[in-house]
């Protein structure tokens, strides 16, 4: 399974592609980058540029699913509106490409990657680097966050696959027991 | 000048086209409507439908400018994120079409149309109906709000034109005075 992880933002938008499936819980980085736009341009121009970049990534890497960091209004940062606009573009691009979007809160992402929802940025970057077996820590933080939300979904997927496999195994056991009875 | 007024929202998005210019402060309604999407569909599908409708309106009515009601995060309603996403689509459509977007807060719109920023929905609807010389009050409120934000910009434009005309007249007077000196 190939996941496009997105840490949305209008000034810096982290994009990352990770592959899972080479083994239980194994994930590998395919690509990572940060799309930047300047506040010297109009909001519309910035969104158009970001939409074009999103399309390029979807075309080039052909992911199976998108994993998006969810922003809470309660964060109440000045960028909340523009970040929501970028999240909207991600949902839109997914719909146009027939992809599902899965959203994870920052706490869920941190808990998935580091084991605690209260992890700081350094811990997240450190764990992403180790989990993906990277030579260097990804920079800037938006790149590490995009990788983290990608890994978060890849691991959820692995978990679901394991649960499905366990359920199938259990059904087979019950069927065998029924046949033997 | 033809203005596309937008009252953004994912469940109901008000769209209105108003023309100004037939006389000082005169505005006329060209079209009004509300695009609705259901929460039974994904956010991406709803945004895609809305984007298609926006494109239809831009193609059909060919406005000169877009007037958009600005949402404050301080409103803190559950719909703030999706409303921001729809606002992003409006900015995006404008950029793709080479149009400017002017944003007005609800208070600015109310003050422009009714004379007070504390007007209620009934007052806004009543004034929009009178100003545009409509036989019936526009329904639902999202339609009236889209007309109101359209009228708000049309009147700002008229004001700017008047100021420009006054400035030009003043320059001509000074030039004439200079020539006579």
Automatic annotation (TrEMBL), chains A, B:
GO (cellular component) term, any one: Holliday junction resolvase complex
Residues annotated as the enzyme's active site: 7, 69, 142
Binding site for Mg(2+) 2: 69
Pfam families, per database record: RuvC (PF02075)
Annotated positions binding Mg(2+) 1: 7, 142
EC annotation from Swiss-Prot or TrEMBL: 3.1.21.10
GO MF entry, a single one: crossover junction DNA endonuclease activity
Subcellular location: Cytoplasm
Cofactor comment: Binds 2 Mg(2+) ion per subunit.
Record-linked InterPro entries: RNaseH-like_sf, RNaseH_sf, X-over_junc_endoDNase_RuvC
GO biological process: DNA recombination; DNA repair
Superkingdom, taxonomy of origin: Bacteria
Broadest EC class assigned to this enzyme: hydrolase
Cofactor(s) for this UniProt protein: Mg(2+)
Catalytic activity from the UniProt record: Endonucleolytic cleavage at a junction such as a reciprocal single-stranded crossover between two homologous DNA duplexes (Holliday junction)
Function: The RuvA-RuvB-RuvC complex processes Holliday junction (HJ) DNA during genetic recombination and DNA repair. Endonuclease that resolves HJ intermediates. Cleaves cruciform DNA by making single-stranded nicks across the HJ at symmetrical positions within the homologous arms, yielding a 5'-phosphate and a 3'-hydroxyl group; requires a central core of homology in the junction. The consensus cleavage sequence is 5'-(A/T)TT(C/G)-3'. Cleavage occurs on the 3'-side of the TT dinucleotide at the point of strand exchange.
HAMAP family the record matches: RuvC (MF_00034)
Similarity comment text for this entry: Belongs to the RuvC family.
Subunit comment: Homodimer which binds Holliday junction (HJ) DNA. The HJ becomes 2-fold symmetrical on binding to RuvC with unstacked arms; it has a different conformation from HJ DNA in complex with RuvA. In the full resolvosome a probable DNA-RuvA(4)-RuvB(12)-RuvC(2) complex forms which resolves the HJ.
Name under which the protein is recorded: Crossover junction endodeoxyribonuclease RuvC
